[in-house]
Amino acid sequence: MLKPDANRERIIEMLEHEGGVTEDSVRKVSQETGVPEADIWGTGKFYSLINNPATRVRVCDGLTCQMFGADELARQVVESGKQCERVSCLGQCDLAVASLSEEMELVTYSKNETSISPASDTLAINLAGEVDLSYSALAKARLMGAEAVISQLKASGLQGRGGAGFPAHFKWTSLINQAKTERYVVCNADEAEPGTFKDRETMLRQPHKMLEGLAIAAAVVGTREIYIYIRGEYVNEVRVVEAAVEEAKGKDAKGPLGDFNVTIVRGHGAYICGEETALLESLEGKRGMPRLKPPFPTESGFRNKPTLIHNVETIACVPAIIHNGGQWFHDLGRTEAGSKLYCISGHINKPGVYEMPLGVTLDELVDVAGGYVGTPLAFSPGGASSGFLPISKRDLPLDYKNLADAGSMMGSAGIVVLNDTVDMAQAANWQLKFFERESCGQCAPCRIGTQYMRRQNENYIQLGDPATFEHTEDVAWEMEQGSICGLGMIAAKPLTSAREHFPDHFKTRS
Ligand SMILES: Cc1cc2nc3c(=O)[nH]c(=O)nc-3n(C[C@H](O)[C@H](O)[C@H](O)COP(=O)(O)O)c2cc1C
Ligand code: SF4
Predict the structure, then answer these.
(1) pLDDT at 94
(2) The ligand 1 atom nearest the CA atom of 188
(3) Does the beta carbon of 202 lie inside 6 Å of ligand 1?
(4) What's 436's domain CATH number?
(5) Is there an atom of ligand 2 within 6 Å of 441 CB?
(6) Are residues 186 and 285 part of one domain?
(7) CA 311/CA 296 separation, integer angstroms
(8) What's the gap in Å between 443 CA and the centre of ligand 1?
(9) Would you say the CB of residue 272 lies under 6 angstroms from ligand 2?
(10) What pLDDT score was predicted for residue 1?
(11) Is 165 touching ligand 1 by the criterion CB < 6 Å?
C-alpha cells in the first residue's frame, strides 16, 4: 500500500501517461491515488507539456531562435495546417531555430553543428574527452571519508554553476551537520534559461561524470537516494541518462552505482521548476511554486528532509576534483576558481559549449567560437536573467563578481551575442515575454509586474513614445523588493538594462 504522499508524487507522471489533463484523465488519476480531482486539475494545468493534451508543433520563442526567424517558422507551421504552440526556450540556441514535433522529437534548422572544446586533461568536465566508466573517483572518495572530501571541495573553490555561484562545500557541510538521517541528493537538470544548453551537452557526452559526482555526494552526505530532475523537452538526454544509469548499476546491481537508488524524474514544461524549491514541490507532485526561504533545502528539502541540490555542471566537476585535488581545480580558473562551461550563441560563427578558465573575456570566447558575425552591439552574459550589456564590456572577465559589479550576472553562462541589426527594444520584448509566461503567479509584484513590463514595452514598439516608460523603474523596484524568488527579482532586467545601455533604441520614433 502506497503512502498518501507517494501517491501524490505520481500524479503528474500519471496525467502524462493518460495523455494530459482532461476531465477523464483527472477522474481516473484521482480514483487511483485518492488525491481530490480539483487538486489534480490545478496541478496538471500548471505544466505546459500536459495542460493541453492536443498534440501540436512547439516552436521555440527564445532570444536566439527569435533573432533567427522563429516567427517565420511558426507561420509556416500554421500554413501547413498543423497546430502550433509558441514555447519558452527549448535549450537549442546553438542550433536555432528549434522546434519540437507533434511526437516530441527535436527539429532544428541551423546549418551549424554544436561546437565543443577539444579534449584536454586540463578541463574538469572535458566534454570531448573519453568516457570513464571506472568510477575510481567514487572509490577514492570512499577511502578519503566525508571530511577529507569536503576539505578538497573547499580548496577547489567550486561555486554552484546553476546560477547563484554559492560555494558548494557550505551545502555539503550543512547537510552532514543535520540531525535527521533521512536525506536526499537531487540533481537540477531542468536547464531552461534562454541561451543555456551546457547541461544538455554534459548529459549527452559525459553522463557518467554527473552520475559519479552524484554518487560521491550521496556517499559523503550519507544517503542512497539520488533524484535527477531533467526538463521534459530534453527527450534524448533523458534516454542517454537512463542508459548510463543502467550501465553504471551493472548486472545484478553489482556495478559502481549498484548501492544507490537513482530516480529520474522528467519535468513537464515549467521554467520555474529550475528554482530549487519549486523543483522540490514538483518532485512532490505539486505545482512548481517556489517556497519561502529559510528553511533552505539543506535543512528541509524533499519531503521536508535535508536535501543537497546541485546543478548538473557543479556535480560533474566533483570527480575531477577528487582525482586531481582541490587546488588543481582552483588553479584552472583565471579570476575565479575552476574551468567553466560557457554556452554561446547568436551572432557568432561557431555556437556551442566551450570549457574555459573562469574569467575569460567575451572577445576570447568569441575568438574560440569562430568570431563575430557582423558588427557586435550587445550581449546577454548569463541568460535572460542577466539582461543586456553593451559590446564595450567585451573585455570584462566573465565571472560571478565582475558581472555582478557591472550590474549583470553570470547566471547560467548562457551568452547570446547580438549584432547591430537587432532592435534592442524588440530584443528586450522577447525576454520580457519569457518572464511573463514563466512567472508562477504566486507573488503579485511578479505576476502583475511581468505583464506590465511587457505591455509597456510593446506599447513603445507600436507607438514609439518613450512616455510609456514613465513608471517602469518604480515597478521594477517593487518587483525586485516584493518577489519571493529570483525570477520576479530580475524579470524587469531585460528592459531596464536595454534602456540604460542603448538609449538610442528607446527614443521617440515617428
Ligand atoms: C527562476 C530560477 C530558475 C532557475 N533555474 C535553474 C536551472 O534551470 N538549473 C539549475 O541548476 N539552477 C537553476 N536555478 C538555481 C537553483 O535555484 C539553485 O540555486 C541551483 O540548482 C543550486 O545548484 P548549484 O549550487 O549547483 O548552483 C534557478 C533559479 C531561479 C531563481
Ligand atoms: S517571484 Fe514570480 S516566479 Fe517567483 S515565486 Fe513569486 S510569482 Fe512565482
Answers:
(1) 97
(2) 11
(3) no
(4) 1.20.1440.230
(5) yes
(6) yes
(7) 16
(8) 19
(9) yes
(10) 41
(11) no
Residue 161 Cβ inside 6 Å of ligand 1? The answer reads: yes
- pLDDT value of position 6: 76
Can you read off the three cell numbers belonging to residue 285?
A: 507532485
Dihedral (CA of 193, 197, 200, 206) sign: negative
Residue 78 to residues 20, 75, 310, 429, 447, Cα–Cα distance (Å): 23, 5, 40, 23, 30
Q: Is the CB of 213 under 6 A from ligand 2?
A: no
Q: Where are the alpha helices (DSSP H) in 100-197?
A: 136-144, 146-156, 168-176
We report the CATH number of the domain holding residue 395 as 3.10.20.600
For residue 161, the ligand closest to its alpha carbon is 1
Contact of 271 with 261, CB cutoff 8 Å: no
Cβ–Cβ < 8 Å for 483, 467: no
In a domain, 336, yes or no: no
In a domain, 128, yes or no: yes
Cα 222 to Cα 224: distance, rounded to the nearest angstrom: 7
**Ligand 2 center to 282 CA (angstroms):** 15
Please indicate whether residue 439, judged by its CB atom, sits closer than 6 Å to ligand 2. Answer: yes
At residue 413, φ and ψ (nearest 5 deg) are: 55, 35
State in Å: Cα 87 to ligand 2 middle: 19
479 C-beta closer than 6 A to ligand 2: no
Has residue 334 been placed in a domain?
no
**What pLDDT does 3 receive?**
54
Residue nearest to atom 4 of ligand 2 (CA): 485
Grouped pLDDT means (10 residues each) for the chain, 510 residues: 71 94 96 96 95 83 97 96 94 97 93 94 97 97 98 98 97 96 97 98 98 98 98 97 97 95 97 98 98 97 98 98 98 98 98 98 98 98 97 98 97 97 98 98 97 98 97 98 97 98 94
Positive or negative, the Cα torsion across 21, 25, 30, 36? positive
